Amino acid sequence: MEKDRNKKIEKTKANILEALLLLLQHKEINEISIRELTETAHIHRNTFYIHYTDIYDILAEVEENMCRKVKEMTDGMETTQLKENLEVVLESVFEYLYQEREKCGLIMRYRGSVSSGKGLVESIFVKYLNTFPNTFNEASVEFQVQFYYCTTGAMGIVRYWMEHDFKESPKRMAALTAKLLTKGIQGALEEAGRG
């Protein structure tokens, strides 16, 4: 019975998201009313409020689900495996983002000011940094700046890719991202060695 209930909730949420994506083809998000969204989704207004507080809550959930999926891509990996296979992991992430490009665009367009979608790469980057266990003091300004630089840089690459209609392959974008992250870490290691 619980399984059936969960399926019904998933279906309702999928209908709401589909309706939102449909409406966004003709309007900006701040022009869409809950009434219009629920009518398009063919649900009662109360049903909407059981799951969400407002339209932006839908975006937060989409982002959270995408971040969780990306994190799961590395959950079973040891840190050394990630270090040795960074490009392969990033290729999986870029493949996923390509498959979910409509949702990815939604996050980048409307959640950008809140989160910049950085959660999509943050979990991988945290784990990758842990492959250099005694090198970084995570409380240091150097680490924090490096972390911010790399995560926002990686999201800049995703944004660029999205704004150019995903023309480059996920494999090429993963290779570029891995190269830049690796060079960024090397620079930080050199800086740590001087300090």
TrEMBL record:
Top-level lineage group: Bacteria
Protein's UniProt name: Transcriptional regulator, TetR family
One term of GO molecular function: DNA binding
PANTHER family documented for this protein: ACREF/ENVCD OPERON REPRESSOR-RELATED (PTHR43479), TETR-FAMILY TRANSCRIPTIONAL REGULATOR (PTHR43479:SF7)
DNA-binding region(s), residue ranges: 33-52
Pfam families per record: TetR_C_8
Key words, A-Z: DNA-binding
HTH tetR-type domain span: 10-70
